[in-house]
Amino acid sequence: MSDTYLIAFDGSGASHRALTYGADRAKAQGASVVLAHVLEWSPYSFLSAEEVAERHKRREQEVGRAESIILNPMKEKLSAGGLRVETVVRYGHIAEVLCDLAKEYHASQIFVGRTGEKGLQARLFGSVPATLAQVSPVPCTIVP
Q1: What b/e string do you get for 73-104 counting C-beta neighbours within 10 Å, with b at 16 or more?
Q2: Where are the domains of the chain?
Q3: What angle do CA 111, 112, 114 make, to 5 degrees?
Q4: Taking a C-beta distance cutoff of 8 angstroms, is the pair 17, 8 a contact?
Q5: What angle do CA 137, 141, 144 make, to 5 degrees?
Q6: Are 66 and 39 in contact (CB under 8 A)?
């Protein structure tokens, strides 16, 4: 049974670096890749029935857009290079969802890019890579 590597990808420069690094490791190890895009969403808002219906419609559109514009081109590129690739788009807190996906797909490692956030928000709330380094159920490679 080969390993599965979970690579977080949002189209940013940091995620491109993580994708390149993780895909190179996967190819060298004969691992498959799950390319994940997480749309940040907060369940802590109070909405009317109409707002919930509208939000659901927007979520479906956002998932479709993320799949077609962000993930599919990368999947095609990696597949052309000989890798087995799956894509997944989910909503939620990014680090939490990545941990859940690692368990769901039985990933042996998570790859994520470091954005270099140094502002007050990153210090107060933490960054995704810093959170993953603390709570990930599998080894997490943070690519600079």
Answers
A1: ebbeebeeeebebebbbbeebbbebbbebbee
A2: 23-112
A3: 140
A4: no
A5: 145
A6: yes
The answer for residues whose C-beta is within 8 angstroms of residue 140's C-beta and 6 or more apart is: 109, 110, 111, 112, 129, 132, 133
pLDDT in tens, 105-138: 999 999 999 876 555 555 444 588 889 989 999 9
Q: What is the pTM of this model?
A: 0.84
Backbone angles phi, psi at 130, to 5 degrees: -65, -40
SS3 of residue 31 by DSSP: coil
For 28-54, how does the pLDDT look when each residue is reduced to its tens digit (9 = 90+)?
A: 999 999 999 998 866 556 666 677 677
CA distance 59 to 4: 27
Secondary structure class of 117 (helix, strand, coil): coil
